[in-house]
Amino acid sequence: MINYYTKFPQLYNLFYNPYLCIYKQPIYPSHTHRTHMMPINRKSRYTRAVNLSEIEKKTNDAIKETINNKKQLINNTLFDIESILKPTENCIKRIDDIRVQLSSRVIEYENTMFRQLIDNKVLPVELIKKVRTQIRSQLEKDPNPRIFKLINPKESVWNGETEKLQEVDVNVPLPQDHIPYVFIHGTQYRASKSEVYKFYRQFELVAKMFNNPHVDYSKIDIYLVSYDSNLTDEEVLIIRKGFSKVLSSQVSGDSPQLYTAVLWEELERRARLTADNKILPFLKQISLSNNKGRAITHSLGCYALAHAGYQFIKKYPSMKPPFFSWFCMAPTLPENAFAYTGISSEASKIAGIPKGIDKGTSIWFSNFDFILTSIYVLTENRLPMGQRGAVASPYSYTNIDVTKCVKDIHMTKEHKIGGILTPGYFTLLGPTIRKILHTEIASEIPSCYIEISTPLY
User: Fold this and answer.
1) Do 237 and 184 meet the contact criterion of CB atoms below 8 Å apart?
2) What tens digit of pLDDT does each residue of 40-56 get?
3) Neighbouring C-beta atoms of residue 371, cutoff 10 Å
4) Do residues 384 and 376 touch, judged by C-beta distance below 8 A?
């Protein structure tokens, strides 16, 4: 067993020595003579402040080292295998298959390593649980779920017109001659028309459904699911007070990752409310229209549709699947969510029988997705489906390994990493998305994804 106290002595001090944090001034316990010698009317300058930024940094360092060790092991082993097989043309074609099996095996060990990090209190899992328990009721809010139809997708994205969104009554029948495409965003979006449109626009700029000479998408209706999944300043203040109370100390520094980890249970609750109140009845209307559509979901959006899909399969077992395709991208779900005993048992069946990456439910995952892994390990104490694919539910999905495409990128928006502007998730998957949607006939860029038809065990 790895001795993480030796490996990360500063983490041992952080979680087991209450007096070794980040202080403005030296600390003297209240029973010492220095405290009693202070004048009563003089404000003490000996105050302790736990630095949340330091906790986040040390947590990330431990997680990143685990991921980087895995990455190095996979890459080095593949290099060795490829060097041996290179002279043999037939064997080299099996490299991707070897990579998939190797990654799956390494991730099994990674699960064990994260469990040791949690058990040894290197990761602040118990601290996050205590804070969440302390302030759970204060974080609850109405996610304001709504579904909008985008009236002018081509004109708004490509011609510079203002987007026109119309709220949909989920109990009203849908047009019989149009095919619905449903988009559900993940975290860090407010419940507004402008926010949900931004998510769709990021996809369309890459997909070019309404700006290509090859396929006519004029009969496609675009539906956007909106709900509150944002971390607000007010919620940050509540969470910081929660940390302060649990730690019996003032807190300094900033830690978006720890804030999100504390809020995560509430974000899942909001996603479930959205699924129950809006997505589920909408799936029924899609099924009744006899025009199977396509769902494009990302991160927490996958969780929302999986919850609705589970309810749909259970409540309407004889109805037709509402979709012919579901892009389940970087899902924040347990890897066994679609298994018979999973939290969203058989939800993947809402997209019918899988047939490669284009038909049925496809799970888009990356072994190196750092944001997804760090948040999920801190909140769920295990690796997510978006990091290794779905397991133990054969013949109802296709796993798509996009590790080589996106590497450690999770966010759909462009963002800065170390001061460098980094492309978003959809941008990195551009050639793959356009290939599936047939909006690009030939690409000089080789495929970066690996299609896995058999289940991972």
Assistant:
1) no
2) 444 443 346 788 888 88
3) 17
4) yes
